[in-house]
Amino acid sequence: MAIVKMKRLRVIALASQRDELLQRLLHAGCVEVTEPQAELSDPEWMALLKRDTSALSDVKARQNAVNGALEALQKYAPEKKGLFIHRRTIKEQEFMSDAAMNSALHSAAEINTRVQRISQLFTQDNRLTGQRASLVPWSGLDLNLNTGGTEHARVSFHTCPAAVDLREVRQALAQAAPSAELFPVSADRELQYLLIMCHRAEAETVTETVRPWSFSTVTFKDLNGTAEENIARIDGELEELRARREKTAGEIAAMADCRRDLQVCSDRLTAELSKESAKERLLTNGTVVFLEGWISEPGIPRAESEMLKFACAWETSDPLEEEEPPILLHNPKWMTPINMVTEMYSLPAYRGIDPNPLIFWFFLFFFGFMFADVAYGIIIWAISFVITRKYNPKGTMGYMFRLGQYMGISTLICGIFTGGFFGDVIPKVAEQMFGIPMEGLPQWLQTFSNGIIVNPINDPMTTLIMAVVIGVIQLVFGQCIHIYMCFRDGHPADGLLDVVPWWLFFGSIGLVAAGQPWWWILVGCVILIATQGHTKRGFFGKLFGGVASLYDVTSWLSDVLSYSRLMALMLATSVIASVMNTLGTLGGLSVGGVILFVVVFLIGHVFNVGVNIIGTYVHAARLQYLEFFGKFYEEGGQAFQPMTYNTKYVDIIEEE
Predict the structure, then answer these.
(1) pTM here?
(2) Where do the TM regions start and end (predicted)?
């Protein structure tokens, strides 16, 4: 239960075996390839070796093509799926089959070609639809659209704003161009569509005359016949385009059997991306390649067994003092879900301490303490258990639902001791709907409903005291960890002086509270002043550091009071549940009352669980991040990211 030790790995291998070597290291899953910084800054190295090049962009393009094909299949041949992907198992040999990948890439190309064809058909459809819309206002005009007039007369098509008064336009034309005639064709909310006929000698005069009314000239290039004839022709073409689109979409849907192969190919290309990214960090002179990176100490035997298959040389070494190796946390499998809580904050520094075993029980207890309801616990556990068993989600989602099972159990246990079962639904239903008072219930049910240890609604002050005491226990535990870390790092005096004087100070406050003279607090203050500046230089530095530490009393008080949120969230969950139960039982035992109860019960408790599960998780995590971690935690680590199979659709059965 600790931070996994890392070793610096350096490998020199034949360039001809590069791809096979990287594939086997990918199979091993314990090597992270990094930039060889020291070698890149050494002129002698750079004279011999140059950075290797990879086909990274090509692999990305192929993966985009496969993912695009999968999206097209989901659109044209949708597969019914739930919130989570149902992963299937596949043997590693089948997963790494080049023939299967090439076949899937060919299928992806066929699908994407048809997708592109549909896109082109949509473009044509949009163009024709726009053209049709522009012709509709002229559909009532029985005149060829390419009519320009005769040798002496000109015919032109125009639009103007709908607000224009055509009588004014006609009057202006009558004065400026007596031969001109204005014919309205149609109108809509925005424009009027007009035809103007005039003598060619007056054409320019007509144009200048109508300009003040924002007349625009309309031309119909490459269109013959009337507007109605062109609309009919376009409708036929649109129908043909729709038929072609449906046919092409049907061809895509007919390839739905390729979906599984495409999913495997997508995961395979993700693995290829990992390899190609590593290639870009290699150095080579064309004959040999140089690889540098990190390897987890437990993974060394596995990686060495793979490298022994190749003509290569390697070495491992401890990280230098100034180096910050990547972080890999190792804990028992049942404890790994708590990783998501730590990762949401920050991974520990390499030379720090793994916080997961330290916060695991605290986090679960805090969550259960704040929710504290037997029924809610069963619901949380059941949902998390079913999703985990049915879908087996990976990564953060997998952690979340595995942790959810523990949170459900914790909520159930705390609910037993606080009397929560859908809040206080048992006594409320018994009294409001059946007329049975609390005293009429069986003794064990009375004991449970009253809270075996505490009932947050009936006794909030006791709940608050419990929350504060729990907080003090966790804070003192955090200080003990700080002492341990200082002893581990060879600074025992610093650890003791950082912590023990505070215990003495708060002990002096306890003595005064117990009836001892007030000057015991002064003794505690003197102890702080004398010890808390021990890291400063010089007498005055130590003195001022000690005096300044008295201000930290407020920080301690703030940390302790922060744990009152345990009581607040427990009370909020219980009160909301109680209010919903009260509203639901107002109708009594009548038919309408039962219906009211069922509706209010379902809506109210679903709301209560949905809202409070988020708040409870956040506040349980916050107490770890701000209060507990502040006593010992050194954050800032970067996650270990080895070359490995990181799949979305399948689980790989690895083979030797």
Answers:
(1) 0.79
(2) 358-383, 403-423, 464-485, 505-530, 566-589, 595-618
